[in-house]
Amino acid sequence: MKQFDTLFLDRDGILNKKIENGYVLDFDQVEIIAGAKDFLQIAADHFRRIVVVTNQRCIGLGLLSSEKLVQINYSINQLAGSFVDKFYVCPHLTEDNCTCRKPKTGLFLIAQKDYNIDFTRSWMIGDSETDLIPAKQLQIFTLFRSEQDSSFADKNFKSFDELASLLEE
To answer: Is 131 a catalytic residue?
Structure first.
């Protein structure tokens, strides 16, 4: 039996390099963050599953089709070692006021319904507080990848090496 239930990850800023004030719209913009692949390989030994929960408003803005996003997510997964079981995507704009756009809990609840997830045995890794807020509400252990600390994080970290050692403890 695995030590933990589900590892939730944000996509851009955690797996793939974030484009500041922009969006990943094509394959040549995919750049896996250093250490992410090695961390996922270790995490796969500790978690029952790994899922990505990501806001992708570029779809709502009409900059990218859902079909192309699926292909980009597939490419990100392959380049990161194919450890992600599923990508959960909110394509909506903030003003759409949907239930799935982080910081709301919708994507997490959909994943829970799909996999019968025990949130109290799960982790969320994000690089913005909007990633952590819904996880905190659901009693998921939160980890924040940033140079600054977050009050919503149970643990702040700067590199995947630091995070891997936490899993190995």
So the answer is: no
